[in-house]
Amino acid sequence: MLVGVVGKANVGKSTFFKALTLAEVEIANYPFATIKPNSGVGYVKVECAEKLFNVKCNPREGFCIKGTRFVPVQVIDVAGLVPGAHEGKGMGNQFLDDLRQADVLIHVIDVAGTTNEKGEPIEPGSYDPADDIRFLEVEIDMWYFGILKKGWEKFVRRVMQEKQQISVALASQLGAMRVTEDMVKEVISQLGLNKEKPNEWSDEDVKNMAVEFRKRTKPMVIACNKIDIPGAAENFARIESEFPDHMLIACSAESELALREAAKHDLIEYIPGEPDFTIKDESKLSEKQKKALEFIRENILKKYKTTGVQQVIDRAVFDFLKYIAVFPGGVHKLEDSEGRILPDCFLLPPKSTALDFAFKVHTDLGKNFIKAIDVKRKVPVGKDHLLKHGDVVEIVSKK
Prior knowledge:
Layout: E1 2-6, H1 13-21, E2 38-47, H2 50-53, E3 63-65, E4 68-77, H3 92-99, E5 104-110, H4 130-149, H5 152-161, H6 166-173, H7 181-191, H8 203-217, E6 220-225, H9 232-242, E7 247-250, H10 253-264, E8 268-269, E9 278-279, H11 287-304, H12 309-320, E10 324-328, E11 346-348, H13 354-361, H14 363-367, E12 369-374, E13 379-381, E14 392-397
Helix pairs in contact: 1-10, 4-8, 6-7, 7-8
């Protein structure tokens, strides 16, 4: 699974990315500060199984704070896009190709309207952030459309001459975009197209197909950044009503980054995504730091209950991709061979089975699978048993 952080230049993408990962990236107030995609590890929040068993876990990857497990997820910060990227403007082709591998997108916009369509700084409120939502969707739609239309007539002739199923042929052509045969069938039916005569489909039909494929293969959470700037809250309320079918989350990446850095330096106690923090020792804070923390508490956390950054990645992974978190464990033993308690937590795609989980833990466990045990209920389950979010599973295999 790969989460892509996208958007035009200078909207706070790199700050958002660093807040997610605490990676060292260049943060600069000019277009194209990011030329190559930054890659890092973000974390989604899961209720740790340690609570259920009244133990303290020892994660091999990620970390756990007071019963909240943070499970690693691969994240890339793709360089800023400009209108016309699908035509190669800016560094458009490279940036769009970087998106190809992403399973879900986090679209960071400047909800305060302090950057124009080119990503250049302007007076707050003098640009409509709703245009950014439209612009990125159009860019990706046209990118998909361009891939579909390239050699379309030749492709359709071959499909009809060889009497191929159009759903199979299109899924094969768009496999790199994660378009499946079932998805093609669904879209053809939804658009009312004649699957037997793709040669009669108009450019508009093909464009509509591209839009539907984009929606299904590149689901998008809109991170409405810079919510702390005057005028941003009003913009957020307006675009929420303007885009009722979109997932929009108010956020302040700068605030989240400040809190995570303060926690990293042991100045505060803070669990990412929570509505407050605790100052550990005021004597270690400068007056400037105290004021900054108080500003975040009063203007972000009290108003929105979160900085929004953690919420964005959680919604992307669990709501859009519908991944589930599953812990390996035993009915009689929660430790691994090195004595670590509940050391692992795996993220699995929806409809994953006990056998899928066995292969995820180790190939040999999958190949030699006998049964699984639902540790919470202490009952055996078969290889086709569908797992649920938060399950703890023991795999029994041949020696």
